[in-house]
Amino acid sequence: MRGFLIGRWQPFHKGHFSIIEEISKEVDELIIGIGSAQKSHTLNDPFTAGERIIMITKTLKKYNFPYYVIPINDIEFNAIWVSYVEALTPPFDVVYSGNPLVRELFMEKGYTVKKPKLYNRSEYSGREIRRRMLEGERWEHLVPEEVVEVIKEIDGVNRIRRLMESDYY
Amino acid sequence: MRGFLIGRWQPFHKGHFSIIEEISKEVDELIIGIGSAQKSHTLNDPFTAGERIIMITKTLKKYNFPYYVIPINDIEFNAIWVSYVEALTPPFDVVYSGNPLVRELFMEKGYTVKKPKLYNRSEYSGREIRRRMLEGERWEHLVPEEVVEVIKEIDGVNRIRRLMESDYY
Amino acid sequence: MRGFLIGRWQPFHKGHFSIIEEISKEVDELIIGIGSAQKSHTLNDPFTAGERIIMITKTLKKYNFPYYVIPINDIEFNAIWVSYVEALTPPFDVVYSGNPLVRELFMEKGYTVKKPKLYNRSEYSGREIRRRMLEGERWEHLVPEEVVEVIKEIDGVNRIRRLMESDYY
Amino acid sequence: MRGFLIGRWQPFHKGHFSIIEEISKEVDELIIGIGSAQKSHTLNDPFTAGERIIMITKTLKKYNFPYYVIPINDIEFNAIWVSYVEALTPPFDVVYSGNPLVRELFMEKGYTVKKPKLYNRSEYSGREIRRRMLEGERWEHLVPEEVVEVIKEIDGVNRIRRLMESDYY
Amino acid sequence: MRGFLIGRWQPFHKGHFSIIEEISKEVDELIIGIGSAQKSHTLNDPFTAGERIIMITKTLKKYNFPYYVIPINDIEFNAIWVSYVEALTPPFDVVYSGNPLVRELFMEKGYTVKKPKLYNRSEYSGREIRRRMLEGERWEHLVPEEVVEVIKEIDGVNRIRRLMESDYY
Amino acid sequence: MRGFLIGRWQPFHKGHFSIIEEISKEVDELIIGIGSAQKSHTLNDPFTAGERIIMITKTLKKYNFPYYVIPINDIEFNAIWVSYVEALTPPFDVVYSGNPLVRELFMEKGYTVKKPKLYNRSEYSGREIRRRMLEGERWEHLVPEEVVEVIKEIDGVNRIRRLMESDYY
């Protein structure tokens, strides 16, 4: 059985990782969709699809679990989005998502849809981690160590801070 | 004389219907544009273009008035939007719209533009009807009975409620 | 039962009309898709979607048969095209098309697909009619008289001839 | 040395002009990018790219300084935006922008990036000028006289006011 | 009076230059549209919009004639193309083009359209010049000397030759 | 060192596989780009991106070599294509491609570009394999056995044959 899990992974954190660990007990293979793949360099979506792929694959390297990572651009046309995902990915049987729109769209097309359990939601949260980066608080303990490395290599924290500077146009 | 009336019809309600009744006295044929045709499955735009077409044509079936229903995608380029509408529709002489941007764009291209009268705006309002659906209040009396049927068939009220669930990504 | 018939209708001719007559015996309602809606002003696709809608609705006006005319832009992404059509139209049960790609795409999604019979294919052909227009031969007897009127009003034959002039860039 | 300066110029005002005067001392030629070129007819972006080009070229006509004005559409894909600008413009050595995202994107690609000084920011501000137009206050002294002429010719102030009318769809 | 002249300028050659010289006697200002601006790196369209802008502005620098160079992307939607051009450029009164589609589209919108005279068409031809580059024949005498310089700087002839290598995928 | 290899893989054949075997000796990780990802259901590009991903991953499963498979849509804008690929993939040091346009684009951006050796080009060719499928000749020995399985499961040969039927619109 193959599963499909989609998220924005901005950045990939320990909560995401534990979700994948749980799902890996239920499916034989997992497709990990990189949602909003075209977005980057904003406070909400600081990292490119390529950077997010590296975060995920470095972290999962040591685990012997078969998965695919597929970037999925937003298409701003909800009614055809499931079909778009199907065209870009191997077929799958079950969909995992914490996002109600994603669940609704797949459910209406007849998919089995599950809502993964997320532990420690107040800290294992992309929004919280980005806020900590911006305000100079500790964030490294909330993501896998491989993700810390990736973000340091690309100077990701400074990218986020520079994007916050005021604009006067 | 042919008229053009554009709206989002999310959903098509009795206020919309009375506007069409009024306009039908002034024109020989009416083009009904389905605005933001590509949008669906959001709280603001829950229904697909196809679903909205069905709502309108079922309601108007018993009236012997010649009209066209044409889905119009957003193109996010205001200065060419009138030209885009002209390419997709039969030619028309007068434009009806409650939206000031639509009126401005057509007016600048030299069209006669009219603002249809809307009765009972506080209740005959897409926003109010969607709010009532979401909160479990009575909404059925605000739309034509054919629209009630369509929304029941597609389980539209539950779609809106499911889209409201919290997201934790 | 609702049917879906898609074509480019460049222009709408008597062969098209006889197809619709046949289909009208099999279905209760017919959705007529205007394929390649965004195309116009080329030798292969001279008429805009709006012009093609007028040709069809003028011709069908005298027949008491319920139909919808929906412009469908090309999206250059075959694997999601059926989903795109579904989003823009009321639901349908059976698809009619002379185009093998259209038939294949709908068939793979589980639709019943039929190939309409076309009489007198050498003359009832968009390509043949456009060739006759270009070369100044008689074409009017191959299309419904309403279509002759529409093409005369928009000076369509001269449009095609002017497009054939040589280019030296 | 060639410089690149991008802005939305909604409208082009005296603060913009003084920035160009400053930059003209540092570079031999200047490319002036018209950002969000596809936007117009909104309260935030009332003027078309063509209208903004006229404002700039009329103002700069009397100054003997070589510059290019290039409209740049938004592409909603930050990671490829620099490459998009490079494809549409002559090559440049230094980038001037008040926008932190623009600076970040060019900086990550290795460009020298400078933040132009802006005098009298509370008044020499597109937002403030649009607010004054909307509320009927004096705005003409904040833009070059050529810009006043352009806006009068296109009846720009009334465009903005009409766009503010309430919408009831 | 302002004129609009559009071409692909692949590359800008002496025939193009003599057209501009002629037009400059008829209009006060000229908008030079860079057609198919998004295309480059093919045998038919080897040069980017930025490279073509440089060719034109370097050549015209010594002539004291006011002009604008505006890149215009293809939009593959003929019926709205005139409107698209209008949005991106200052207003103009007369259109010059050797391309019958361009002339038809502007003529149908009511513009005065002129077909510029082209001398020595067999040699002053983008296609012929690209062929000569590819086959190692002399081409430099067919373009302004500034264009020779630009093409040498970007190693344009070798670009074209490398694009001709066989492909085995 | 990470390499990037892009192809259309229509279908993935033994020639492709031997290229990957060769490259795997030179790099530590390989990104395999699925070119023209949005294309499918044509004689030239019969298989979806998802189907091609399955062909590749099933074939490579038994080899212990780290790779990524990333679908890459065509964007019809050559000058920004490299930047588009970079945004969607992990960073890479060397590019492998049999396509001269791909090589040129990466070379101009400063990448090391290599042309992989291909054995038995007359038979190990997507075009030849598709021709054989269409004409009912033997093709199975030209692709890995896992690819034979995938194509059988999706009834790929009949898809290609049905697409060849004549069209009479």
Automatic annotation (TrEMBL), chains A, B, C, D, E, F:
Location(s) in or outside the cell: Cytoplasm
Documented EC number(s): 2.7.7.1
Reaction it catalyzes: beta-nicotinamide D-ribonucleotide + ATP + H(+) = diphosphate + NAD(+)
Secreted listed as a keyword: no
Xref: CDD domains: NMNAT_Archaea
One Pfam family of this chain: CTP_transf_like
Database matches in SUPFAM superfamilies: Nucleotidylyl transferase
Family statement drawn from the similarity comment of this UniProt entry: Belongs to the archaeal NMN adenylyltransferase family.
NCBIfam families in the record: arch_NMN_Atrans, cyt_tran_rel, PRK01153.1
Record-given protein name: Nicotinamide-nucleotide adenylyltransferase
Organism this protein belongs to: Methanofervidicoccus abyssi
